[in-house]
Amino acid sequence: MEMRLEVVQVPVADVDASKSFYTEKLGFVLDHDVEHIPGMRVVQLTPPGSAASIVIGTGMTSMTPGTLEGLQLVVPDLGAVRAELVRRGADISEIQDMGGVQFAYFGDPDGNRWVLQGATPSVVKDAYLGGSGS
Question: Can you give the pTM of this predicted structure?
Answer without folding.
Answer: 0.86
